Structure formats: C-alpha cells, structure tokens
UniProtKB/TrEMBL annotation, chain A:
Species in which this protein is naturally found: Pontibacter akesuensis
Coiled coil residues, start to end: none
UniProt superkingdom: Bacteria
PANTHER family listed in its UniProt record: RSBT ANTAGONIST PROTEIN RSBS, RSBT ANTAGONIST PROTEIN RSBS-RELATED
InterPro entries found in the cross-reference section: Bact_StressResp_Reg, STAS_dom, STAS_dom_sf
Pfam families named in the record: STAS
Name of the featured protein: RsbT antagonist protein RsbS
Start and end residues of each STAS domain: 2-113
UniProtKB/TrEMBL annotation, chain B:
Organism of origin: Pontibacter akesuensis
One Pfam assignment: RsbRD_N
Listed PROSITE patterns: STAS
Record keywords, A-Z: Phosphoprotein
Protein name, entry field: RsbT co-antagonist protein RsbR
Domain of life of the organism encoding this protein: Bacteria
Species lineage: Bacteria, Pseudomonadati, Bacteroidota, Cytophagia, Cytophagales
Chain ranges of the STAS domain: 158-269
PANTHER family: RSBT ANTAGONIST PROTEIN RSBS-RELATED (PTHR33745), RSBT CO-ANTAGONIST PROTEIN RSBRC (PTHR33745:SF3)
Length: 135, 290
C-alpha cells in the first residue's frame, strides 16, 4: 500500500507530499502522522505541498485535522509551498485552514517552527537570515 | 433577370455617382476618418455585390447564400467603422443614403409607369432596410468587441504588483473590486509572491471609491489566499468614510492588519522584516537636519 514518508528532523517531523492525494492516502497520512507525533514526541510538523496541484475540501479538512490533533499533542503544524491555484481553490471553497501556520518554502517554514516552539534562532543567524516571519 | 437586378446592372454608374454625392453632401461626413477614394472603392464593391446578389431574383432574404458577399462587405465596413470611432448614425446613414440614390434613378426611369415605380420602391425599400439592420447589428457587435477588449486591457493594467522592497510587495487597487477583478488581483499577487519569494504583501485600497460588503468579502478572500501561501497581508489606504462603512456594515477585519496609509503599512512591513530605515544626519549644509 502506498504511503507518504514521514521524516524526523530533530524535534520536527517533515512530510513532503509528492503525489496528488486521494482520500485513502490522506487518511493514512493523518493516522501515520499522529502516531509518529506521539511516538517521537515531536514539537512541530512541517508539511510541504509545493508539488500538489489539486486540492479538494476533503484534503483541506485533513490538513485542518492534522493541525488540531497536533496542537492537542503540543506540536505546531506548518504547511509550506502552497501553489497559487491551490490557495485560490481553498479560499473559494471557504476553507481558510484556521489554526494552520503557513510559509512560502521549507526554509521559512523551519524558521517559523523554531520561533513557534520558542527555540528561536540565535542572534547571529537572525541577522544574516532576513527572511524570518514575524509570527 | 428581374427589374431590380436589371436596374442595378444598367444604372450602376449613375447610382454610384448619386450615392457618392449623397454621402459627400451629408453634413456629418467624417472625411477625417475615411478618404473619398476609400469610400468610393467600398461603395463600388458593395454595389457590384448587390447587383450580383439580386440577379437570381432574391430581393427579400438577405441571409441567403447569394447575399453572403454583400453582408460580408457590410460587416467588414461597419466593424471597421465601429473601431474607427464612427457614430451609429453615421454608419447607418451609409446604407440609407444608397436608398436615396436608388430612388433618384428609379424616379427618372419609371416616371411614366407609376405602378412599376411603386412596386420597385417597395422592393428596394424592403431590401435596404434589411441591409441596414445587418449594418446596425454588426456595428453594435464591433463596438462590444472594442469594449470587451478595453475591459481586458484595463483589468490587465490596473492591477500591477510592485516590489517595493526585498520581500515586500505592494498592490495598489484602483477602481471597484468585482469578482472578476478580485480573481485577477489574487492570481497576479499570488504568482508574484511565488516568483519573488516575498513574505509581505501590502494591498492599498486608496483608489477604491467605495467598500461595500461584497468588496470587503473579496478583500478578505485575497488576504486569506495570501495567508495560505505563507505570506502576510496588510491592507492600507483605508479612508475615514471606508472605515465608517466597514463598521456600519458589521464587517469583521479584526484579524487582518490594516493601516491608514501606504507609508504606515510600509513602516509596519519594515518592522515585521526587521528592517530599519533611518535619516542620515549630514552636516554638508545642503541637507540640514531639522
């Protein structure tokens, strides 16, 4: 059965969705991800959807669910790399993914996660990397 | 060959002369837009086509295949004229002045046969009325094409996405936001965010004449889409009356960053990006610090 790999990177989990999600796959991802969070005690989840071109309301809800579940387990969720077309579709569907943080790319997503869980970037990194989000 | 066709064939020269005279005598003649030679060429072509079309005896149905050439010429003329800026009256008069020219010839030819004259007048009247309808139809179509094209161009031009700083985009919106324009604004903005990797977008609405609930909803949509992409959106240029309407309409913009002017939005964007802009103290005499 097809599965989406979940990578552990320090205190975070990294998921890169490389295929268009069908419902079964999305549900599996939700299950796997949540059990991974509990198993590893991850503090953050980063989901890269930069190559996903089709998104429906179901997928939007799954992302929302993942974020809510992770929050209960004390992990923040960041969705990165959403395509313009996908963003427009979600907005037209009325899904604004409340509670999900977003970033332009994986790099900015990582910075955001660091900020979120209070690790922060140390000062010299902060000065050279001028791309951090304010949140 | 029926009498009408015969007439058109035999008196082509006279008709053309009369017609040209009528056209030139018209006070509303736009010789600034079209030359006399050009007009004569058009008229001659049309007259020839007409003579050929009616030679089979069909003087009633202008949508029949034999009239194709005539309607093609007319379509061509009226669409060109619509683009050149002729008024509908001027375009309509083009065909109607042919009527006058034909009447003159008819009158002379059938002076002694009032019955034939009457019959012919009816036939020609009917035919030319239909042809002028064709002209009007295509004229309006031509105008609409022009309007549609202009609309597209306005939409294209009126939503520029400006890179004001490294990582900061500004999008001044001018004119009312309707659904179609929101779509274009959104697409342009999101695409530009991807292209430049900007994390802050400033939507400036000082050029939007009025904000009703629909416009506000469109703005909120744009902001939400920007957020989904992972960028922050600031709405600037909110005037007093707009603030009043927004509050009176009960629209909730509390989770959207709003600023009164583009300058203060830029200031906020700078502080979000941890950029500082300072005035440099100088003592060269030209640029005295206050």
């Amino acid at each position: 059965m097809e599965r989406i790999p979940i990578l552990k990177m320090g205190p975070f989990l990294l998921v890169t969705i490389q295929v268009d999600l069908y419902d079964r796959l999305a549900l599996n991802l939700e299950n796997d991800l949540i059990s991974m969070v509990s198993k590893t005690g991850a503090r953050g989840v980063l989901i890269d959807i930069s190559v996903v071109s089709i998104v429906d309301s179901f997928m939007g809800r799954i992302l929302g669910n993942i974020a809510s579940m992770s929050r209960i387990m004390d992990a923040e969720t960041v969705v990165v790399g959403m395509q313009p077309a996908v963003a427009i579709t979600l907005v037209e569907l009325g899904l604004t993914l409340q509670g999900v943080h977003t970033a332009l790319d994986v790099e900015k997503g990582m910075e955001l996660l660091h900020d979120k869980i209070g690790l922060g970037l140390n000062s010299e990194q902060e000065e050279e990397g001028s791309d951090d989000s304010d949140e | 060959m029926n009498t009408t066709a015969q007439l058109l064939h035999d008196y082509k020269k006279n008709i053309l002369e009369n017609w040209m005279q009528n056209q030139l005598a018209d006070a509303a003649l736009r010789d600034d837009l079209i030359s006399n030679d050009e007009m004569r060429r058009q008229s001659e072509e049309l007259l020839e086509g007409l003579a050929r079309a009616v030679s089979n005896g069909n003087v009633d149905n202008v949508y029949a295949p034999e009239f194709e050439q005539v309607t093609d010429i007319l379509t061509d003329i009226s669409i060109t004229r619509a683009r050149q800026g002729f008024s509908p009256r001027e375009t309509g008069m083009y065909v109607l002045s042919l009527k006058q020219a034909l009447y003159q010839v008819l009158e002379e030819k059938y002076k002694s046969q009032p019955e034939v004259l009457y019959k012919e007048l009816l036939v020609i009247n009917n035919l030319l009325d239909k042809l002028s309808m064709v002209t009007f139809d295509t004229y309006i179509k031509g105008r609409e094409e022009v309007i549609l094209r202009q609309n597209d161009e306005i939409n294209e031009i009126s939503t520029p996405v400006i890179r004001v700083w490294e990582g900061i985009l500004a999008l001044p919106i001018i004119g009312t936001l309707d659904s179609a324009r929101t779509q274009i604004v959104m697409e342009n903005l999101l695409q530009e965010i991807v292209n430049t990797g900007s994390s802050i977008a400033i939507l400036d609405i000082s050029g939007v004449p009025a904000v009703d609930s629909l416009v506000a909803q469109h703005l909120i949509k744009t902001v939400s889409a920007t957020r989904l992409m992972g960028a922050e959106c600031i709405i600037s240029g909110i005037r007093a009356e707009i603030a009043q309407t927004i509050v009176h309409l009960g629209i909730d913009l509390s989770n959207i960053k709003t600023k009164a002017t583009l300058a203060s939005a830029l200031q906020l964007a700078f502080s979000m990006r941890k950029v500082e802009v300072r005035k440099i103290a100088s003592n060269n005499g030209f640029n005295q610090p206050r």
